[in-house]
Amino acid sequence: MTNTAAREEILQRIRSAQVPAAVPVVRGYNQKGPGGVELFAERVADYRAIVHTVTNVPEALEALKGKRIVAPEGVPDEWLIDGVTWLREPLSIDELDQADGVLTGCAVAIADTGTIVLDGSEAQGRRALTLLPDYHLCVVRQDQIAASVPEALQLLEPTRPLTFISGPSATSDIELNRVEGVHGPRTLEVLIVI
Q: What are the C-alpha distances in Å from 29 to residues 37, 90, 108, 144, 151?
């Protein structure tokens, strides 16, 4: 039997094989967990993020006065307090790199893991906005906190560019010493709005 004939025989066997009907797979993931503001705040702080629970965002932003902060499209006007130089898009890579920080919202936050998810929509901007400045201040509303990863994934649009943030950028690649700010902001500050 030639190689071609053997190949055809194998392909014919594959084509004629009985394929069972697709059976739906029931996934018993824990959709809801203890979750909530307290767990999210604890977990995101475990990653060395600075965490504040607030009721008034503009008041909490007073510490930004005198700084040059990037504010993506869709950031609520009431967040743009006086005394801050607000940088708006389009910005070059050099302009982003020279900013003191960036202020964003988020798509969802995950209590179980202390993770913030950005999807580039309103008040989040393009991915580079949160990777180049050395400081990222993210506002998370209480109603955006999902208990678990499966619950969060159900709330997200899978075709959007998703960025999962679990604390400031850090690596331990070099002799297992933690180095922050390698692949993104050295400082992550989170305002949880209740």
A: 21, 42, 19, 20, 9
